[in-house]
Amino acid sequence: MTTQQISVGGRTINAGKKRTFRFACSETYHGDALEIPVTVINGTSSGPCVFLTAAVHGDELNGVKIIQEVAAHYEPEDLRGALVCLHVLNVPGFLAQQRYVPIYDEDLNRSFPGDPRSTMAKRLANTIYEEFITKCDFGLDFHTSTRNRTTMYHVRADMRDPDVERLARAFGTSVILDGEGSHGTLRRVACRNGIPTVTVEMGRAHRFQTAHLDRALHCVASVLAEHEVLPDQPVSWPGWTRVVARGGEKRWLRAETAGLVEMNWGPHPLVEEGEPLFTISDHFKEDVEVVRAPSTGLVVGVLESAVAYLGHPLCHFVSIDESTAEIIRDDIERGVFDIYREGGFQWPEPRWYAKHEHDANAEHTGDVFGYD
Ligand SMILES: [Zn+2]
Fold this sequence. Notes:
The chain is of the alpha+beta class. Helices cover 20% and strands 30% of the residues.
């Protein structure tokens, strides 16, 4: 037992207590308070203070549901240490269901550690950082891909830092992208200030994806087990782990032709060298670009837009070796990746929409399309 208190967001929470409250982080031009929903669960035994954050991009919702479930699930008697759950960081973006802070489209996750005398996003970042993040020992920041894209379940972490590496591996995803993160991201700033933080990426914006959520709840428990916040729980091992080094091994494949996009890859993220991934064509199917896999690899992030302009990112591609590919093929057999194309679709073999021969006598009849 301990009498350890936690002070966050202007409140003090005693050991053995669970508190929910709304923290006024800013206000609208209409004069209403903008409030972050907060849950603090302070364990009956002392230990690390862990933050969990979601929706720093306002339309990335899987993490919001994860935090709702974590906050409801754990009680003080379960924990050695404390959980500080910030259910939504970018409150104005969440209300508008958009990525950035309205109206000037500032990116809250490029605004840390913030500035109390600067823009709204920097003030908001500063308040969050000072009132909550600096009070914690390490944390998890939940994201999804941005709209019109999907991303494989993975962690981004600065693997040069042993404490960050421990956190990333304990979370138990198969793919870890090594890197410090962009300037102004919550995790980069927190890590530089000695608060190990990883970004968790999964799926799509604007929805709850239950298979990702189930997995993430186990991964949160695994992190808590590794750091002895949940001393009796097991630490998860994903079966295989691929740490993608900074530079070189991952790249964006971009459109070199502007036009309409057909997705040819899938339904799983593992693709073989030379496999067609996307076909981009003009309206007349005269200018056609087939984008192929440069090697055997993983489609870690993918555009789900139907159109592309020149240079448009089509997919985030990671090369893998044959032994890893073999393990992934086994995972595919076991259905591990069945969710990946949820909500997306793959173009089947060409039917009526194959490029038509130019035939002056051809007559286009309504039944070519099979529907009105
Ligand atoms: Zn994000």
